[in-house]
Queue: 2 jobs
Job 1
Amino acid sequence: MDAVRATAADVYGLERWGQRLLTILPSGEIGLVNPLNPDAAPVALPQVVRELETRGIRAPVLLRVNAFIEHQLRAINEAFAGAIRAAGYDGAYRGVFPIKVNQQAEVVDRIVRHGHGFGFGLEAGSKPELLIALSRELSPESLVICNGIKDAEFVRLAILAKKLGIHCVIVLESPRELETVLAEARALGIDPVLGVRVKLTRRISGKWAESSGDRSAFGMTMNQVVDVLDRLKAEGLSHCLTLQHSHLGSQIPSVNEARMAADEAARVYVELVREGAPLTHLDLGGGLGVDYTGEHKASANSINYSLEEYCTNLVETVKYALDAAGVAHPTLVTESGRATVATSSMLIFNILEATYYDQATPATAEDGDHHHLEALSEIAGYVSEARLQECMSDATWYREELRALFRRGQIRLREIARAERVFLYAIDRIKRVAAQAEAVPDDVAEALEAHADIYHGNFSLFQSLPDVWAIDQVHPVMPLQRLDETPTRRAVISDITCDSDGKIDRFVLADGVHHALPVHDLREDESYYLGVFFVGAYQETLGDLHNLFGDTNVVTIDLRADGGYDLVHEVEGDSIAEVLSYVEYDPRDALDAFKARVEARVSEGGLTAAERRELIALFKDSLSGYTYYEH
Ligand SMILES: *Cc1c(COP(=O)(O)O)cnc(C)c1O
């Protein structure tokens, strides 16, 4: 077992980024660990995939593991409770889940259920999200926090929620919004429960830096906050202001940035209390990050802190600031979305085929070939560890010269084709020697990554991994099987869309992020599955219909205490008819039009009646089928 762990885990760095939710089994397969029952035998992931396929649920499939959501919810709540106890903080912790991070009913309902005992609530940033929040069975202690730009109807719903016993806070984003709230409250004759969203002046680094500081699109500057307070006082409604909110953006890379923000937020809190606002809640927003690369450093896809450090630092920072001013400790609220759900889902897809950028079969120049081709041909004979760089340079040089000759009409098609084969054979030799070498020069390693294979995956990046495309998000990717074999090839992963952006070319490995993924040779009779991990946050509804690839199949499983698993929920992916209707085609009309065309050909004698039957059946089957490659 230990030896197996060493080979496979070392390559992909699973031990670093896997958060002990994933492991490598002696069978060479990825196992799902039950974090709620760590003694239970892990569930072999390829086994789950095989059993889904037997049921007709084919890849690509998004697999959600309930236990991972429950575990993470508990971890966050327990870490805050622990930090509060250790610091002697007098307030409680009341987290809320920001619905925009994953709006799927299956996910939100799990969070509501598992969060009940912790008084965990929901954050809504839009009217549809508010309707979701108001219709869930939250515990009486739970908060519903309303952020975002709100119209009169949004505000009316949020005010009326009070009548239902829901602790629903309207967080004012602007002085204008206050006027809407005042008008609605007056009309309803109900005092609203209010918060103010304050723009902190300190900015965070990372991809979401724009969400912090003066120029962020949300919240109010200090002078606007003062205006709002004065306006509330003038209306005799200052007692309604009970919550202060700030949110700095997602995936805060460094714990000291979170601490700086908490410190400034606490200072504002103190001042607002001194101004007479009866605040009881301090909401520090989202931003708790996920260590996607396992590097534990302050960078775009990693973080330099643990959950416990995050909680301890926020609690202590707020406590110091309030104690210094003699202000009572408020209930602490955070809105951690990414950290709650990122780990809970994975995208699983099969590899359809590979394009190789080397060839193992020897190839040489023939009599009469250009002398550059002869020179290219000789390289394979002198590849050695000491001459790796020289061989790489020679191969690149002669291939370029030969291509130039071809472009000028000086060599023919078959000769340039031979040149390609000879080149690919030389690359194969270089790759093999490099794989065994003690040290490979950086330039050679980089050049070899540029000659990585392309593995074509059955998925759409635009539909299933939009952040990989849009903001260079790095998710851990690795094969689900054969992890007891050393992967012999390096590949980039291309998706099934006809778009050259549809590829994954940054991979988390044991020693950092690389441009090629170690993979195994494909076998004729065997599916080869890759998993993209930690895709539970933001990916599901941000995706689009590029090339009309629709939603994938989605399956939720429960991990049982006895080591088994149960399939608890399944959503079939979009059919072709569904995606056609999304772009305003009527599938019925399409079928009728096709039938008419076919019938016309039958009348002309160009098709037989039997061919007609077959064609129509095929069209119908396709309409009701999956948008992805079916095998
Ligand atoms: C998006 C958002 C969050 C969630 O942030 P995470 O980094 O996913 O925790 C929280 N609060 C507000 C106001 C947001 O807009």
Job 2
Amino acid sequence: MTDAAALLTVDLAAVAENWRRLKARLGGGACAGVVKADAYGLGAAHVGPALYAAGCRTFFVALAAEGAALREVLPDAEIHVLGGLLTGPVDDFFTHNLVPVLNSLNDVSLWRAACDKYSARRPADLHIDTGMSRLGLDAGETTRLKDDPSLLAGIEIDVLMSHLACADDPAHPLNKAQRGRFAEAAARIPARRASLANSSGIFLGADYHFDLARPGAALYGVNPTPGPTPGPGHMPGGANPMLQAVRLRAKILQVRRVAPPDTVGYGAAYTAQEPMTIAVAGAGYADGYFRSISNTGHGVLNGRRTPVVGRISMDLTAFDVSGAAEADARPGAWIDLINSDHDVDALAREAGTIGYEILTALGARYERAYVSGVNGAEDTP
Ligand SMILES: *Cc1c(COP(=O)(O)O)cnc(C)c1O
């Protein structure tokens, strides 16, 4: 299949289908694509055009440099920069036609000055904080602006936005509080469009949708409805309504027999309790296969669960393949680290983190293949 030690397959048809599924939930509302952090590690240069082909026209990145890189492959898309003006040279916003998200009244002044300097009146977005206490105008600044919208004089606001802190927990009271504060601000602050929902926010119901949704993680297969309390748009049992978009495989580099009292790996953190067969595969924590998976996670060898044994090394991981057919457990064969049966969220649970971190940590050393349709996208309408 390949000479590489590990292979990451990204299913662009699955990403496009996920975008269409999210868009379909929005009634007539628009759906953006959040492709910050290199499309959550999947590769923005591939994901961006795939989303564009599916009909997505509005993209969000975190940094100006990410916006400039995306502009190379998406000459006609709208590209918005969530981190705002301080993430790069202000020139970049003009040269690459990027829309900054202004996060304070001071940012508003900076943008006004920049537009004057370039003699170009360019729209900007405005982020108001409604309960996340991260980026955006604080409550005091928001009130000043609601009372005196002329503070925006000379600036055209495209997207008025806010960000939900607890959207993955439909029962959390902060959702309603944030929605209320945002709706109040949107009624008073003039803007072309209002935007509140991230992936999980889309599943909180229509009153969270406003004009434009901003999903990221769900596009890439992370479950936007992880429970425990079901919300209005949730599937029974918290099932994942999205298609898996990544498959990660590590090649078996060596197979060995161990028996008590042999130990496996650094720190002798695993001791063989009986004679067993160990497959050593070519991915480790330097590739984003987190060390916290040591002795707890598992891979899949030809449909068979193979537990991780011992500590994950920088470049290598040992799996217990005892009982597997010799034809399966052989050097050159592949162990699935992420696939449709052992998905990003499942691996994240084993690692003690979230699917977002698993994806954004996907290693630079993996050989990458971009395909369409391996995870069932072609079977769906
Ligand atoms: C990352 C981000 C999103 C996308 O969130 P997901 O949970 O990945 O859908 C949307 N809006 C803002 C402001 C973000 O930072």
